[in-house]
Structures are given as structure tokens and as C-alpha cells.
Amino acid sequence: xxxxxxxxxxxxxxxxxxxxxxxxxxxxxxxxxxxxxxxxxxxxxxxxxxxxxxxxxxxxxxxxxxxxxxxxxxxxxxxxxxxxxxxxxxxxxxxxxxxxxxxxxxxxxxxxxxxxxxxxxxxxxxxxxxxxxxxxxxxxxxxxxxxxxxxxxxxxxxxxxxxxxxxxxxxxxxxxxxxxxxxxxxxxxxxxxxxxxxxxxxxxxxxxxxxxxxxxxxxxxxxxxxxxxxxxxxxxxxxxxxxxxxxxxxxxxxxxxxxxxxxxxxxxxxxxxxxxxxxxxxxxxxxxxxxxxxxxxxxxxxxxxxxxxxxxxxxxxxxxxxxxxxxxxxxxxxxxxxxxxxxxxxxxxxxxxxxxxxxxxxxxxxxxxxxxxxxxxxxxxxxxxxxxxxxxxxxxxxxxxxxxxxxxxxxxxxxxxxxxxxxxxxxxxxxxxxxxxxxxxxxxxxxxxxxxxxxxxxxxxxxxxxxxxxxxxxxxxxxxxxxxxxxxxxxxxxxxxxxxxxxxxxxxxxxxxxxxxxxxxxxxxxxxxxxxxxxxxxxxxxxxxxxxxxxxxxxxxxxxxxxxxxxxxxxxxxxxxxxxxxxxxxxxxxxxxxxxxxxxxxxxxxxxxxxxxxxxxxxxxxxxxxxxxxxxxxxxxxxxxxxxxxxxxxxxxxxxxxxxxxxxxxxxxxxxxxxxxxxxxxxxxxxxxxxxxxxxxxxxxxxxxxxxxxxxxxxxxxxxxxxxxxxxxxxxxxxxxxxxxxxxxxxxxxxxxxxxxxxxxxxxxxxxxxxxxxxxxxxxxxxxxxxxxxxxxxxxxxxxxxxxxxxx
Length: 808
Fold this sequence. Notes:
Layout: H1 8-20, E1 56-64, E2 67-78, E3 85-89, H2 91-96, E4 112-113, H3 114-117, E5 122-126, E6 131-135, E7 154-157, E8 160-174, E9 178-193, E10 196-205, E11 209-221, E12 226-234, E13 244-252, E14 268-272, E15 276-282, E16 285-292, E17 295-299, E18 311-316, E19 322-327, E20 341-350, E21 360-369, E22 374-383, E23 386-397, E24 400-411, E25 414-427, E26 432-441, H4 449-457, E27 466-477, E28 484-494, E29 501-512, E30 515-525, E31 531-542, E32 549-556, E33 561-571, E34 574-584, E35 588-599, E36 602-611, E37 614-628, E38 631-635, E39 642-646, E40 654-655, E41 668-671, E42 680-685, E43 693-695, E44 699-713, E45 716-718, E46 720-728, E47 739-741, E48 747-750, E49 756-762, E50 765-771, E51 779-785, E52 794-800, H5 804-807
Parallel strand pairs: 1-6, 7-44, 39-44, 46-52
Antiparallel strand pairs: 1-2, 2-3, 3-4, 5-6, 8-9, 8-37, 9-10, 10-11, 11-12, 12-13, 13-20, 14-17, 15-16, 15-18, 18-19, 20-21, 21-22, 22-23, 23-24, 24-25, 25-26, 26-27, 27-28, 28-29, 29-30, 30-31, 31-32, 32-33, 33-34, 34-35, 35-36, 36-37, 37-38, 39-41, 40-42, 42-44, 43-45, 46-49, 47-48, 47-50, ...
């Protein structure tokens, strides 16, 4: 593989000229201007515009019609017709670029120039930026969502095992509760073997023993766009209340869809009279702009994040005329895009609540998007002593998004019906967001599967059954000058209780200059009619730069009033702070302090407090251990999907993808979080590398499957680095641009100004071969010997001698 960094000196010298003459088709360098008396025979064609690459393979940031496809390995082959190296493409690479290979006239898989595949295609190489821009007519590209990631790029990862830990210790002594010490240990472990993944989650507490939270096998079922789990797990909770079970579950995984196809977003349809520009806005935000040909058009890849206000569409024709229309954009919680569907299936035994004989049950649910207005959904649960059926719809209307469903349940001798309504609306003129949710059971006989299980297991709340639950939310932005207001209220009542649970809260947040503050008030009433009220004020004042910020807070309730003043700061991986608080009644004061820091192998926190007759001390640690083919690597807390980075001999090199991620002494590092089914770019900062190590590439892209542990290898070349001052035997300087290679032909550098070369990959001693033309007099060899290895850049002078055969 050719190594672009080895030519960095010459490329950097030409960058300014290239930028100034970017509009020119070509620049010819006059070698005699580089050094008075130079021979004029030095070959500088590689540094002319447009930039020319030498034959080899290059990692290049590749674009097709302006769309970034990531860093790809592109082969360059010499074309005998013009003597230059050009990018060549085979069928797999063309498919990776999005070309519809079924339209190509030839099925030959040999590497060919791009115009030989598609005559109208073009390409531009920016060698200094390592970027390749391709232009391919739209008709030759496969139609897909704008952020579609081909299934061929999904990676199952490597076989591995891991264990994540979450440890905490808490020691307190107070007049009210006395002295007590508590500990907690959370465990999250797994093993990946091929497509199968084993997962276990559990927790050990000092007063509750060990509890298994989940224990199952899982794998992806890509043809169904779903995940399969077998073991102890929880059912899906979109339509029914989630319960713990021992069995199997198969459910849709929307993460397999492109990001522009997830969730609900309306389809924009219309007819263009000419090559027209379609602009889609939501208020002042431009969401999408594209050019469509004459005739009907469909735009169905808007992001779901745009939900929350109607869309304004402007179509500008080639003659400058415009047409405008509005597309309703209000989505109920369970709404899907037109034509999309989602399902879940579960079969197993219900667990929990100390049931001696866990009952078997089957559960299924289906959602279907019929059009932009209607999504239908239904589901059922079947067990020996319990049955439930549900039917509902989500409607997107100009008056807001509504969801309505009804359910009938039968448990032993009880049966009943339940209705559920949700509504959300955005008042565009005032930017007011309203939300309402109401659920009502028409008789005491209605029970969910979880309630029926608790009744059968005689749990503590087995006889309490909810009758009505209602929630109302209002969010009102008041503009940048006045802040934001939020109001919420809720009420819940049961069949067996005479009193209701109810409450409300009001909050207001604003920023005055650098001072941010928030006010809140809440009031609740429990089932016994007891009221509780809480008023709070919090403030935060940044001190500027790296000096941290001051915080303060006040809270008041009928039983207790408290005030607090504190300071907090963050310096790189460290964060720390302290606070002083006082409360009434009792005139109790308290001093708190905490510190936390993050390392490549974990996160750690300590805290302490001291007050009148009381004290507390706590500590926590979170991290993970990963076992893989290269050994065992310590890591920060892991997400569902993560990656292993291998950079040989690059101890201490920093990963750009997270805080304090560094390569360990064996050349490995863990990227703790990757997004499944999406393109993840993992970068290595070359500034942290020792001089003796050079990266072939410092950036790679990976598309992991859910739960995968992917391995990213970054090839490196080890060797000494030196700044070498070269002279010919007669004392002349070497010409600018002369190529420098080892005896094995591997390029080591390019001669720069003053006949100096920054050469990498050197052995302790050896020979350099220099060439600046085809004739023997334009070649020489230089023997060198380096001193003792150090971290400092070594500077040496050597003589480059021509052989008698070459001189003649």
C-alpha cells in the first residue's frame, strides 16, 4: 500500500500554490527556480495541478455527487495511454458507491476506469486533503433513502467476552437513622460467538442479596428487521405493560432502518412542471431542499425529529414561478410512516411476585401505517387464566395528533374494558405545545397481565386496581428575553380507594446575562388526603474560562426549609465541587465535597459530608473488562454495541471518539459506544504517536450490528525517524522533489528545501536510494547510521554517492 504521509513535506510546500491557483487546470513548476544552478531534470509532475497520485492503494474520503460515503480503499493503476495513475473500480466497489450495477453493460469484475463503466461520470482527486469526489449521473445510481447503509456493510464483529461493573459504597451516621453501611455491585456481562450473543444483567446489594435482571441469548433476524431473544427477559411495552418472562421474544428493531425512515414523518407529494427546486420548511427552519425533474415527485425521507408543526412546501419552477402548500405534520405516539409496519411476539412463563407455578402465556402485537393520516394497531395476550385483546388507531389531523384504543381483559372470574386516549397539538402562532393522556377502566374487573399476576401471587398491592389516570402537560416558550414555562397536572383514582392521587407542578426557567435560574412549585395529595407542597429556586453563574461556576438553591416545604451555596468545576478528566447548606428548623449546617475523574479503564467518584452530629462517606467505580483475540483490555462503562481498536506500538495515542480514550501498552483501546446499523467514524489522533510509529490511516468507518463487538485495525509502520541532510560527492545539494526509498523500494520520504528529508521507518543503519530522473546520473545511494534511540528527532548528515556504472 502506498503511504501518503511520506510525501507530506512536498505536499505541504505546494499547498499554498495549489490553493491560489485552484481555478487553473494545471500548474507547471520550473525546477531551475527551486535552486540556482539546478540541472532542470528533476521530475516534479507528481506535484503539478491537478494533483497526481502514484500507483498504489489509498485510503480516501470518498464522495458521490456531494454525498459522503466515508473513507474507502481506492486502487490507483497506471494508464499506459498517458502514463499517469488513475482510480480504477470493480463491481463490488461500484456497488459500495451506490451505482446500480444492473444497468451496466458489462458484468466483467476487473478493475476499470470510471468512464469505462459510466461514460458521463467524472472524478476529482484532492491529494493534499486525501479526498476523492465523484460525479455520477442520477440515472445510474440505485434509488435509496439518503442515509441508507447497505446490509453488506453491517458487521457481526469478532468473538469476545466482557464484564461491566458498577460498584458503590455508602457509609452514613446520623441522629435520625444511626450508623449504617451499604454496598451495591451491578454486573453486566456477555459473550459474542458469531451471530449469537449471550447477555446477563444482575445486581448484588448488601441488604437484598443477588438479583438476576436479565439472562438471555439473542441474535439478529435481518430479513424480518427484528431481534430474537431466548431466556429470562422483559416483553415489549409499546401496546401492553411490560412483564418479566422466561421464554422467547421476536420483535421489530427500527434501528435497522435508515435514520430518515424511523418514526413518523409525512410524505410530501406533488407534480413539477419543469426541473424544479422543492424547499420544505417548518417555521423558520429549512428541513430539506432538492431538485426534482418534471412530473410527479415523492419525498419520503424526512427525519422524524421534525415532528411538531406543519410543513410549508415551496416549489420553484425553472421560469421562477412558485407554488406553495402545507402538509399536516402531527404524530400520535404510535404513528408509523405510510406503508411501514412493526410487530412483536412473545411466548413463555410470567415471572415475579413469588409465584410458585409461573403461568405460560403468549403475547403478540402489530402496527401498520396505512397512510399519512391513519395508523392501526392491535394485539392480544393468551394464558390459561387470562386473556386480553386490544384494538386502536393513531390519527394525524390538523387539530392535533390523537391515539385511541380499547381493550378487553378476562382474568379468572373477572372481566372488564379499558379505554385510552392521547392527544397532542402544537399551536404554531404561539409555539404552545399541549398534551393530554387519559385512561379509564369501565369496571373493577379489568386487569392488566401484571396486575393479574400480582393478584395471583398475593402481592402487597394485589387488591388495588386503578380506575382512571389522567395527565395534562403544557409547554410555552416565551422567547429568548423571557424564558420558558411548563405546567403539568395529574390525577389517579382506584376502585377500592375513596381518595385520589393528584397533583400539579409549575416551572419557569430563564437566563439573565450569564445568570441562569429556575423556579418551580409542586403540590401533591395522597390517597389519605395528606397534602405536600414544595417550592424551589436554583441558580447557576459561570465564572468564565476554566474557573468553573457558582451554584445556589433554596427549597421550602411546610416541614423543612433549606438553602445551599456551592462551587463546581471541570478540568479535562477531572470534576470536583463543594457546597455548604443550612436548614430550618434545627439550625443544621452541612458541608459537602465531591471529586470524580475518568481514565481509559474506568470512572471513579468519591464524596464526603459533615454536619451537626452526622457524617457520610461514599465512593463508586464503573468500568469494564473485555477479553478478545488480542488479550484482555480494560475499558470505560460499555454500551450495548462497542468496538475494539488495534494500533500496534502506539501506546498513549488518543482516540477522538470519547473522553480519555487512549491506546494501552499492547496497542489496544475500547470505544465504549457505537451506534448499531449506522456509520460510525473512529479517529486516532496522530499527535499522540511516538516518532517511531507512522499510521497508514488514522480514520476508519464501521457499521456494527446491534450488540456486536467490532475490531478496527489501524496498520502502522515502525521504525526510526530522522531529519537527514544530504549532499552529493562533489558537494552539490540534492534537487527538491527527489524521491527517497529504502533498499526494498518502500518510499521513505521526499527531499525538501535545503536538500533535507524527513525520513520515517528507518532501521538503525542502512542505505537510502534517491532518484530524481530516469538516467543513472539522476540516482544515488547514501549509507547512514543512526545513534542511540531516543524520543527526540535525530539530525544527521550523509553523503549520497553515484556508482561508476550510473555515472557513465
